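question for whoever is on the cluster today: can someone run the full assembly for these? two chains, 780 residues total. i dont have access anymore since they changed the login thing
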Amino acid sequence: MPGHDLKLVKTFNYQRPAIDRGYANQTLHLDLSRLTITARPVSGQMKELFIGGKGFDLWLLWNAVKPTTRWNDPENAVCIACGPLGGTPAYPGSGKSIAAAISPLTGAPIDSNVGGYFGPYLKYAGFDALEVQGKADQEAVVLIDGIDQKVEIFAAAGLPEDAYELSEVMTAHFAQGKPRDISVVSTGAGAKHTFFGCLNFSWYDPKRKRARYKQAGRGGIGTVFADKGLKALVARWDSGISVDTNAPADRERLKKVAKLHSREIVELDPTQNEMAVIGTTHLVTIMDDHDLLPTHNFRYGSHREAANLGQAVFRRLFDPGYDGCWMGCTVACSHGVRDFTPLSGPYRGRKVFVDGPEYETVAGCGSLLGIFDSHTVIELNFYCDAYGLDTISVGTATAFAMECFELGLIDARHTGGLELYFGNRAAALEIVHQMARGEGFGRVVGQGVRRMKRLFAEKFGADPAIMADIGMESKGLEFSEYMTKESLAQQGGYGLALKGPQHDEAWLIFLDMVHNFMPTFEQKAEALHWFPMFRTWFSLCGLCKLPWNDIIPEDNRSTPEPAKVMKHVGWYAEFFSSVTGRESAPEDLIRMSEAVYNFQRVFNLRMGFGRREHDALPYRAVGPVTELEYESRAERYDKQLATACKVDIAGKNTAEKLALLRAFREQQYETLKDAVYQRRGWTPEGIPTLATVRRLGIDFPEVVALLTVNGVAA
Amino acid sequence: MIRVAGAEHPWRPGMTVAALLAELAGDAPGCPVVRIDNEYVSRSNFAKTIVPDNAEVFLIPMIAGG
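^ ran it for u. tokens below:
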């Protein structure tokens, strides 16, 4: 093709296995250093214990790396897996891929759940999971062609840098006239120069005649991908997929439950959150109303201009039409903006289609930066995707730098002249462009909050103590976009999450803060057991969690446990049973997740990050850091001091009250840790006990030895 | 007349969301957010938000998110 060249350097021909009850029963291993391509069998134990998806990723990664492996070592692996239920077109939200690697940000395993067609196409091509190790000498493109039953590695030259153009070129190159048969995984220039590169997963939108994108955003898997010299992974499969393609154990049973869930969403989404029309943008004003929308680096939870970023704006901006990131999904929330014209960067003045934004991007690249202008948010969204950058980490890291600038911890001499105050739209965009170019202060911000804290202290003499309080990272990962100051349960949801503060493990804010469903530590601990386990299960199976609890049965509130939406949990058990033939009740789904969840905690420990100390939070996630923050909500904080802490606040100044509140809230969080560790079957140090790993069947010799070395008694 | 959660409900001038939910009593316990046509209204604004005639009101079950 003109302008670029793909030179075939390795071919692996294979006999595609028949899919059996949701599994291809083999994985695909690539070593880009040695140029080897291998199909490896999936054992019965692997399916029994790790189920698929994230579970398979973690098992492959565990066997690929050593305790000393760092993110840019050749043995670090980019793993991508679907799951036994993934690739079912009849059931809403059943097309997810789960990507994993050792993270450049955290040094521990990271996983990210993403839409697009790659995972299902990979499975139907004959592989439950893909594992890429090594580093290519020259930029590499990998084709996994399930139709012609071959895997090919190409040495690439002259391909576009940005993900949007690259996916279009790759789709056109390999489609053989059928672009819907292609899904591309790629990253962009920003991934090469930052630690939070994302992966773009494509699917072809036949109505709009273009490749569309979803992002595996968290933890820098795109950075690992780029470091390996990977330019693109391409999966090719016949897009004429039906429920039979996944070879379910009981086709009629599957069709019955899929129809129930799909129909319910069609009926109820228009009366609830309208996700098929406005995606997740409805959350913006709701979060703002409840003081939960992060603004100005999580100082505050609301802002008078928040409505400028609300659903009413995006209702007008989103291009109408079907927006499912998997075939037939009735949630169909992957909206985009047509004919958007950026005001900066290489696409300045050109009309582009932007996939997004979702709530997280609106908050992270908007309110968190003090930016309440939808055009800037969409432009940041567009360039982050094009450059292969995680919008959440970009937002949270830039917000930290902005607050440091406003506090005088850094100044224009350090930022290359950028006046990095909150609300500076041009500066926020320039930071992102610099990340892509690998230059200027953008490259510094691209190292993430944890490294910035160290660098600002060592090089610029900034105060480490204040940066520890306002640098919104835990385990090295930037916070996603919810305020947690007034929800102890959600502090646990972030701080006790295995990969770092991402809300996909537990989103308990409304249940805790608004509904007060869990007033005691024991109730919070129970929630911080059940919800992370059930949410983990979606990533084991190749599913999206939105159909579970974002569209809710009309009679849900009259059920014994409305927060769990047990009617849907029952449907998921039915879904699993009907596909795999492994008869499962709702409690079995939790048990499946428990094994993988605890294995991941042990994996963290193996990499040096799985102890109580690593579950620490920056104080801003727990309470007000500054007197200004305290005084802005003084009535709330005074009341807590007087009632919960039994403190006589008469005559005390703000600094004294701030200190008292801090001591109280930090103790609350430590008490929560104790309760959660106990509920999860962990030691007070936050390590799974031997009894726990034995109960879950993950007591492999290496696991037992690791626990023993870390002081876990028999 | 307005429609609330799919059913017809009598409307009167000046009716607030708070008043409407009080009339619904057991049908909307603890409802933190409603949608009036295309506008979302949270509990903190229930008392000052007027429900217009012919509106369609949806009771939003905010337990999910994230």
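summary bc i know u wont read the tokens: Chain A touches chain B through 31 residues (CB under 8 Å). The mean pLDDT of chain A is 97.
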